[in-house]
Amino acid sequence: MLSSIFHAGTFALQSVAMALAAALIFGLVIAWIFHRVDPAGGSFCMILTVLPLLVAAVIMIVNGNLGTSVAVLGAFGLIRFRSAPGTAREILFLFYAMAVGLAAGMGFLTLGAIITLAAGLLLLLLHAAGLDALLPRERELRITIAEDLSYDGLFDDLFTRYTTSARLQRVKTTNMGTMYELSYRVVLRDPAQAQSFLDDLRCRNGNLTVLLGLVQRERNTL
After folding, report:
1. Dihedral pair phi/psi, residue 19, rounded to 5°
2. 2-60 confidence digits (pLDDT tens)
3. Structure confidence by residue, pLDDT tens digits, 67-120
4. Partner of 45 for a Cys bridge, out of 3, 31, 199, 203, CB 3.0 to 4.6 A?
């Protein structure tokens, strides 16, 4: 039977230290799993390391009131994605870290360890099976064109040839209004044809700047 290390309404110093230490260990395991699944995770690994500890601390501060703590932590979670939408993987790991933090904050350390290991093993197995590789990987495409060109449908035939999907995200003026910068999200049919794709785009836009890269993550600063 799973039981809490906390007695009703009380938080002994030793129990608090055990819960916070366990939360930190859980966070380190989750961050390691995320790094194995997504090596380009960057600073998000640091967030996942600390998040269970902070969640556990908030739970103890509100004296185990789940309604209050979940409301506070939900607001904190929204801050992470305030200006750039998170990927499905990031949101999944965010809730993963919060779940084990909730377990640690309530004193259910065995339950937290079970969640950490079971969910982590499942994620690693799915990644090893290559299921996440089957998902389309978007690229960010920026094309600069002269202001006298009509961009509506200008590259449609190239998108049909080289991509499985392409959608225009935004248009902005550049170079003191003499050029347009078109921002697309595209999924390439064959990444090996990226160079040919760029060459054809440059022929179409007058050899102006073309940028193709991974969708940029939000950079977190402390």
Report:
1. -65, -45
2. 788 887 656 788 889 999 999 999 999 999 999 988 876 677 888 899 999 988 888 88
3. 666 666 666 655 555 445 566 788 889 889 988 998 898 889 999 999 999 999
4. 31
Q: Provide the Cα torsion 62, 66, 69, 75; round to 10°.
A: -160
| Confidence (pLDDT) at 67 | 67
pLDDT given for residue 80 in this prediction? 53
Instruction: Say if residues 182 and 145 touch (Cβ distance below 8 Å).
Output: yes
Residue 152 and residue 184: Cα distance in Å, rounded? Answer: 13
